[in-house]
Write a structure and sequence with these properties.
Elements: H1 2-29, H2 32-71, H3 74-79
């Protein structure tokens, strides 16, 4: 579970640097009207990516919690 969280944080940090780099490239290369549209699309896609990573991390944590909950339930402790 710790590896999943570390991987998510690492990907988020790399994604932020990629987003900043993409924004600077778009602002320098593309004309003003088209760059505004490109920036909106880029920000929208980055928000979707962040939401997807957040939900995947939450799902992993929830799975780990359910595994631990089943492992340490009252019935299993009585059997031991």
């Amino acid at each position: 579970m710790r590896n999943t969280i570390k991987r998510g944080v690492l990907v988020s940090i790399i994604g932020c640097f990629g987003l900043i780099t993409s924004i600077s490239i778009i602002l320098e290369v593309i004309p003003a009207e088209k760059s505004r549209i490109a920036l909106i699309v880029l920000v929208f896609l980055s928000i979707l990516l962040f939401i997807w990573f957040a939900f995947s991390i939450i799902r992993k944590i929830k799975q780990q919690y359910m595994i631990l909950k089943d492992e340490y339930s009252d019935e299993n402790l009585i059997d031991r």
